[in-house]
Design goal:
It holds the Pfam family MTES_1575. This is Restriction endonuclease type II-like domain-containing protein. By secondary structure, this protein is of the alpha/beta class. It is built from six helices and five strands; from the N terminus they run αααββββαβαα. It has a single domain, classed as tt1808, chain A (Alpha-Beta Complex), CATH 3.90.1570. Helix 2 packs across helix 3 and helix 3 packs across helix 6. The longest helix is centred in the N-terminal third of the chain and has 17 residues.
Amino acid sequence: MNGLTDYQLEEATKGYSKVAGERFNACKLATNSHIEAWMLWAIWCACDREGESFGLSLEREMPADLGGTSVLVIPQLDIGNYKADFAIAYNQGSRIIVECDGHDFHEKTKQQAQHDKQRDRFVQDKGWKIYRFTGSEIYKSPLTCANGVIESLRRASYE
């Protein structure tokens, strides 16, 4: 699936203002694929629903502070020689890497699976928690995926 149908977008944006479609278009510009755009949009909406202020940084490094937002998302953050689909920092100190694993690029071959596992270990050694979602999970229920990320950020801030 290369993109979202109008029906999928309409179903997912029920209860949101007219800006939901515009917000999704902004997410497409900040990401490398439709599943990443869909996930970013869902995280933004989950923040709204949970009363968290959402921030998006297109810088390729983690800032010292979150600039007044409670959840800051950085697409394509470099961590060593690896790129994270999303690095997400919470104002209470927790942080998560979110990977959106489309079938074409993840675990299709043994080499891809090995690369992903090496990257996971490297990133975890740097203190990041990793959440991986398949493209199917994201397309089926993006807000469920995003809510899990927000809940994990909150839980980790108290550990």
